[in-house]
Design a protein that fits this description.
It is a single chain. The chain is an alpha+beta fold and 459 residues long. The chain contains 8 helices and 12 strands. It folds into 3 domains: 154 residues, 2-Layer Sandwich (Beta-Lactamase); 83 residues, Orthogonal Bundle (Helix Hairpins), CATH 1.10.287; 147 residues, Histidine kinase-like ATPase, C-terminal domain (Heat Shock Protein 90, 2-Layer Sandwich), CATH 3.30.565.10. Strands 2-1-5-4-3 form a 5-stranded antiparallel beta sheet. Strands 7-9-10-12-11 form a 5-stranded mixed beta sheet, with helices on one face. β1 and β2 form a beta hairpin. α7 packs antiparallel against α8. The protein is rod-shaped. The relative contact order is 0.07. About 1% of the residues have low confidence.
């Protein structure tokens, strides 16, 4: 099954194309080496034959037929010319001198190059050698053949040819086996991912892609996919929690509204009571609408649809405006609300969203801080990064709740009868993600300190 998928995979097809291109290049290279080598060796032999031919031709011009025959006999007797062949014939092809017994039947041209197999072994050879020779016809009709035994050269070129073919075939085999092994490994890892995907579709998000511990690119892909599955599982759990919380938070006001309307339907019409009932119903509807408005706004922020409003803004100005807005509410609780820190802290972001995020944090600090306590909003540059922090001296939050308070509809008390919808810190978290900022929660001893770490301004 895996072999079939390997042989039909796109990776294997691409590997075959690469092998074909590589093979064509290697074949062209080896062919060039073969042709260059044989051409060089044959050229050396041809130059030796031509040199000897010119010597014999010069002897014929100087001494005639007899002088040429004498030189041929001298060459045959000289062992340094043992690989050479000579034959001088008259116009009737009768031999006049040389170490060949007869004129070759294939030598029909008057002059030029010829290759032929000797009709019988030479005196110093046991087999019929392969000869390459130069032909010449003199004015009197005599014909001269001067050549050499190229059998060794022929065997040498054959060996080169076989070596080239063998190496090329070996390369193709090795490349083919390597491509199958690599493709099989790739297909195996892909099949592992596919199997996990099918298991997830069938049974749920609890499955994860197995890692092989090789720390290669496939393990990194598997790790990233597993992290993505973890994130999806977390989001799905949050969606379920949000759905449950929305149902719970909407059930109470809607039930109250239905009860009031039913009471008004069955009861007598009393002007002031009807007005009070309608007012309460409108208040509950407004609360429901605020919940949906907050959810919609958080969703818009999380889609990063508001980055077009980014510009350089001063955190100190925004924090001062928030403190001014909540100063009256703080005085009612006896809380002292102050702004401290640098006079100018610049960040790049959406001014309105940053204002809303700081306002939510200040509002929470006032509501959940100590009566008669203090809330401090600080603006500063720490390690080159703009930071705004909101600190109170109230009861604080348990450390194990830090990661949960930013979830939608999450509350530290689970009765859900305290005013509020649990979306304020969710909006703060969405603004932080939009701005690439980091939220840090610290124990203020007593109380809670929340730091909003922005990226450095690009101004």
């Amino acid at each position: 099954m895996l072999l079939t998928k390997t042989l039909t995979s796109t990776t294997f097809k691409l590997a075959l194309i690469a092998i074909g291109i590589f093979g064509a290049i290697v074949s062209a290279l080896f062919s060039y080496v073969y042709l260059s080598t044989t051409s060089y060796v044959r050229g050396q032999s041809d130059r030796a034959i031509m040199t000897e031919y010119l010597s014999l031709q010069d002897a014929h011009e100087r001494s005639g037929r007899d002088g040429l025959i004498a030189l041929i006999r001298q060459r045959i007797a000289d062992k340094s010319f043992a690989d050479n062949v000579y034959l001088l014939v008259d116009p009737s092809l009768a031999a006049l001198g040389g170490n060949l017994n007869a004129w070759p039947s294939t030598a029909t041209a008057a002059r030029g190059w010829i290759e032929f197999r000797a009709p019988e072994p030479l005196p110093n050879a046991s087999n019929r050698p392969l000869l390459r020779a130069m032909l010449e016809t003199f004015p009197g009709g005599d014909r001269l053949l001067v050549g050499r035994d190229i059998s060794e050269l022929d065997r040498f070129t054959d060996q080169i040819k076989m070596a080239v073919i063998s190496v090329a075939a070996l390369l193709f085999v090795v490349a083919g086996v390597a491509s199958i092994l690599v493709t099989r490994r790739t297909v195996g890892r892909i099949e592992s991912i596919n199997a996990t995907s099918r298991a997830i579709m069938l049974s749920g998000l609890d499955k994860r892609i197995p890692l092989r511990g090789s720390h290669d690119e496939w393990d990194r892909v598997a790790e990233n996919l597993n992290l993505m599955l973890d994130r999806i599982e977390t989001l799905m759990n949050e969606v379920k929690q949000v759905s449950d919380n929305v149902a719970h938070d909407l059930r109470t006001p809607l039930t109250r509204m239905r009860g009031r309307l039913e009471k008004a339907y069955h009861g007598q019409r009393v002007g002031e009571d009807d007005q009070l009932l309608i007012g309460d119903t409108i208040a509950d509807l407004d609360a429901v609408l605020r919940i949906f408005s907050s959810i919609t706004r958080i969703a818009q922020i999380e889609t990063q649809a508001r980055k077009g409003a980014f510009r350089n803004v001063n955190l100190v100005e925004i924090a001062s405006e928030v403190v001014e807005l909540y100063d009256a509410a703080a005085e009612q609780d006896g809380t002292r609300l102050t702004v401290v820190g640098d006079r100018e802290v610049l960040v790049t972001g959406d001014r309105d969203l940053i204002f809303d995020a700081i306002a939510n944090l200040v509002d929470n600090a006032i509501k959940h801080g100590r009566t008669g306590g203090q809330v401090v909003v600080a603006n500063e540059i720490i390690e080159g990064r703009p930071v705004v922090s909101i600190a109170d001296d109230g009861p604080g939050i348990p450390a194990d709740e830090y990661e949960h308070v930013f979830k939608r509809f999450y509350r530290l008390e689970h009765s859900r009868y305290t005013p509020g919808n649990g979306l304020g810190l969710s909006l703060v978290a969405a603004v932080a993600r939009l701005h690439g900022a980091r939220i840090e929660m610290l124990d203020n001893s007593p109380g809670l300190k929340i730091k909003f770490w922005f990226s450095a301004s690009t101004s």
